[in-house]
Amino acid sequence: MLNSALSLGRAGIPVELVSEFGRDALGDTICEFLKENNVSGQYVTRYDDRKSPLALALLDSANNAHYSFYEDFPAERELKSNMDLTGNDILMFGSILACLEPLSGELNRILGRAARAGATVLYDPNIRKDFTPDIDSIGHLIDSNIQKADIIRTSEEDMMSLGECRNADEAYDYVLGAGCECMIYTTSGRGVYLRTPLLSEYYSTPDIETVSTVGAGDSFNAGIVYTLCREGIGKKQLGNIPVGTWDRIIGNGIGFATDVCMSTENYISREYALILVS
Fold first, then answer.
1. pLDDT tens digits, 6-58
2. Looking at residue 44, what is its pLDDT?
3. Is 101 helix (H, G, I), strand (E, B) or coil?
4. Residue 261: exposed, middle, or buried by beta-carbon count in 10 A (0-12, 13-18, 19+)?
5. Whole-angstrom Cα distance, residue 214 to residue 238?
6. Higher-confidence residue: 95 or 177?
7. What is the pLDDT of residues 200-214, one digit of tens each?
8. What pairing do the DSSP bridges indicate for beta strands 183-186 and 192-195?
């Protein structure tokens, strides 16, 4: 979510990060970096006498990432859930923090606020086998998250891990069964699929020289949110979005992700952001 927030902040979208890390030198650096990139950290929980968590992304010969995680959280953890949400807001959540029992209560309170306010909710499972080797133990939490979302942005890796889904249609059957009707399904270099009750679309992705895939999916999500914000599309309009508008939504997702893949940064470049805000 930090990568997504950074891309949105650079693109000129007002954004707040809800997360947790230590009150240490690394945490201070993160807070300053958020501020420099127009991301509010008022809903970040910071723990005393704890080291901020680290995720190391190690690139293979194809520049795809494999991850190692290091963390030092206290036994009692918390997310700040007192934000005011409206029907004009978009709440994006995902990754491992959305699948942990110690945080599920406060996450559900945030999601409940979003539902009552009529905010649009986007969920990205972002399953990492290095961190969640026993998918069966958290599968019910992921299904619950899908049920609470208006849009699922998932990947072939996610859906193979979660439901042994081999293609976009099998993935959509799974997502529908869990309770969400709108799915965006990304593949590794083989395009993007959109599935809704009314639409079944495919979008190709450009051939590029990939420097790093770290943050590409996160910034794809940011491209979706960027377009929804710019075009004033909310939860009530999702079921009636025409193909041409979806073309722009998915197109910006691909554009954000492509820019990230061509550098070692995990979020869109400042140069790309200048084009968006000009």
1. 999 999 999 999 999 999 999 999 999 999 999 999 999 999 988 888 878 77
2. 95
3. helix
4. buried
5. 29
6. 177
7. 999 999 999 999 988
8. antiparallel
Per-residue exposure over 163-189, b if at least 16 CB sit within 10 Å of its own CB, e if not: bebeebeebbebbbebebbbbbbbeee
Cα distance between residue 158 and residue 151, in whole Å: 15
| Contact assessment for residue 193 and residue 182, using Cβ atoms and an 8 Å cutoff | no
Separation between Cα atoms, residue 135 and residue 83, nearest integer Å = 31
- Nearby residues of 153 by Cβ (< 8 Å), 6 or more positions away: 122, 123, 124, 183, 184, 186, 217, 220, 221, 224, 253
Confidence of residue 218 (pLDDT cuts 50, 70, 90): very high
Q: Which CATH number fits domain 80-277: 3.40.30.10, 3.40.1190.20, 3.40.50.11220, 3.30.390.10?
A: 3.40.1190.20
